[in-house]
Amino acid sequence: VDELRQALLQLGSGERGAGASAVVLRLPGASDDWSLPDDLWLNTTPYPRSVRQMFYTDVVEAMQAAVADPTCSLLMKVTVTPPELNMEMDSYRVGTLLELIRECALSFAEAGLKTRVCVQGSMGQGALMGVPRVLSGVRKVLTMMDWQAEVGEDYEGLLGEVQRSAAADGTDAAEGTIRFGAVGAAEVAADDDVLLLLAPQSMVGASIHEPLRAMAERAEAQGTAVILINPLLQDRLSSSG
């Protein structure tokens, strides 16, 4: 029954079949009914680990399927906004966003894909120069958080020497399978397979569109997949318009 359900979903994957997908997912006799757990509550922060992991697993599987599908565009966007990941709500929790990014990056790295996690740098001029409030300090935390990449751990060496300020001889730290960067064409390395852009967004008087476009064009030209995670790309006008 599971195989039949999967075949029907593939047949109805076009725009005309979108309405029937929910009915097919509940096909009697399948090993699961694709319904949400009865004890799923989203009115507490932070969510239980099992609830967060459910969201992470869905996002990871969708990303992996899209990157592996040669018919998919190399430029992709993922929007996942339960209250803990919705940056426009008071319940937003940056720790949940960082956990999600870690799960996604590790899943690609385990598949042998060199993955760069990108957080935009400072934008604007003068008193308005800075990063969006919801991304403040995120780049530094990414390099400091537990990736299980130390000696003897599950992902030993996956980050290269990025968790050190520099290599022992004073040269730049060597990058690993998972690497970090900002937003811009210069951040794209020739051997990058996947770029994960963490919530790119404009600020008052400073647009993210130009560096983002340049980065996407360079990545696409060399066959690197670009995935925007929860982007906020609407313009934010300054007082001068």
Automatic annotation (TrEMBL):
Ranges of residues in domain DUF1995: 53-236
Highest taxon in the source lineage: Eukaryota
InterPro entries per record: Chloroplast_ADK, DUF1995
Pfam families: DUF1995
Protein name per its UniProtKB record: DUF1995 domain-containing protein
Gene source species: Haptolina ericina
